Amino acid sequence: MLIIVVTCFKFKNYIKFPPEIVIEVVSKSTALKDEELKFKIYQKEGVKYYVLIYPNVRKVRVFKLIDGKYHKVFENDKDNLTFELSTGCNISLNVEDIWKVI
34: phi > 0 → left, psi -120 to 50 → alpha, else beta; which? Predict the structure, then answer.
């Protein structure tokens, strides 16, 4: 299991606020937990973007929190993504680059 958490603010010992992006690399053994349990937890906690990477089928799904609910805003195996973060430190991701390292 690999989880990547993105924050654009400084913190000392632990994060006191939810991260703006959580990226999960999904495997067969973690899919149910990632797609259901963590989906609900991150949505409830206010994580702005939840990204699921499926290396076995080369697909990326991105959910964005809008009015307290996640909406799928991206599903593809290529293209560029830009995450607009509240702190102004926007992050871009080239999906095809993911497949080079996974």
Answer: alpha
